[in-house]
Amino acid sequence: MEQRQLGRTGIAVSILGYGCGAIGGLMVKGSAAEQDRAIGRAIDQGITYFDTAAAYGDGVSERNLGRALRALRAKVIVGTKVRIRGEQRGDIAGSIARSIEESLARLSRDSVDVFHLHEPITAAGAPPAFTPGQILDEALPALGRLQEQGKIRCYGFTGLGDAAALRRVLAEGGFASAQMPYNILNPSGITPLPPGSTMPDLGGVIRDAAAGGVGVMAIRILAGGALSGSEARSPLGVPKVEPIASGASYAADVAAAQRLMPVVEAGHAADLVELALRFAAMPAAISTVLVGTSSIAELDHAVAAIGKGHLSAEALAMIAALRGD
Question: Which residues contact 111 (CB under 8 A, 6 or more apart)?
Fold first, then answer.
């Protein structure tokens, strides 16, 4: 599997990263045996980056990933995240310090490679979002101390919120990585939206981040599962998915995905999931695309899709036409 540099960090990550969240659900609700097999299978197929968070199953994902990696004695790149909510907002630095200690204990590790702030950033900073000032003045020094202590190799943030606020944090914060939405329905983190689009405009923030040496991890590449073209959910996954940087509802995203079926019918991909995965992995500005799964079969399908490489110019032209670009 292709390995790409994570910005200026010096860390190489697989173009397909393994997401251990609740949307796919395997690493939260699956059996221990199936989880261990899935992590081993991912490693065997060249996946080197594994992404979890304290918020995924209230720490369950971290514990399960830690157990699986210990059993396999695997040396991989691990990233986790801190979420700061409620009363914790009054002590941002302390909350970050406590969160990493708890995450390391659950993962059974002395350190993690990447540690992300897991909240939106906006000018107003209305909860759960934070202002750029809060990030730069309170969170950033705490993250720097953790790096000096050797508990994290590098730090980043989740690139949700206002494009202008995100750009300020990117310009002033020295963050090494950012997780940002990017998918075939809304590629505006890199390319402009067509006139009249109702998708949230991400204003090229992925392009800007990569130009500044920030390693971009693409999230929501399947729009929470909607790019399967079906509203059906796996029993292991969350029963309802709220869109992030896409349509007004999950059903709207599914409908938008179905409008791309002519590209599949023309033979450019085996199905909508393959189409979406190959599209998301194309930009050089993106270091890794994160996908969560509910089964090993879904993992195998994702790996096979990525292995087919870039979509053709003809396929991209069809996609643009169907989106109204």
Answer: 104, 150, 151, 152, 153
Where is 290: in which H helix or E strand?
strand 286-292
Structure tokens at 308: 């087919």
Tokens encoding 35: 């989880």
Query: Which residues pair with residue 51 across a beta bridge?
Result: 19, 79
Are 64 and 78 in contact by the 8 Å Cβ rule? The answer is: no
List, for residues 205-263, the tens digit of each pLDDT value: 999 999 999 999 999 999 999 999 999 999 999 888 999 999 999 999 999 999 999 99
End-to-end CA distance of the chain: 31
The DSSP annotation for 2-69 comes to: -EEE-TTSS-EEESEEEE-STTT-HHHHS-HHHHHHHHHHHHHTT--EEE--TTTTTTHHHHHHHHHH
Planar angle of CA 82, 139, 75, nearest 5 degrees: 45
* DSSP assigned state of 221: T
For residue 41, CA distances in Å to 18, 46, 117, 295, 310 come to 11, 9, 29, 11, 23
The token duo for 36 is 């261990």
**Above 80 in pLDDT, residue 186?**
yes
Alpha-carbon gap, residue 148 to 97, rounded angstroms:
13
Rounded to whole angstroms, the Cα distance separating 232 from 38 reads: 22
- Helices and strands in the chain, H and E counts: 13, 10
Three-class SS state of 212: coil
User: Helix (H, G, I), strand (E, B), or coil: what is residue 152?
Assistant: strand
Strands 12-14 and 3-5: antiparallel
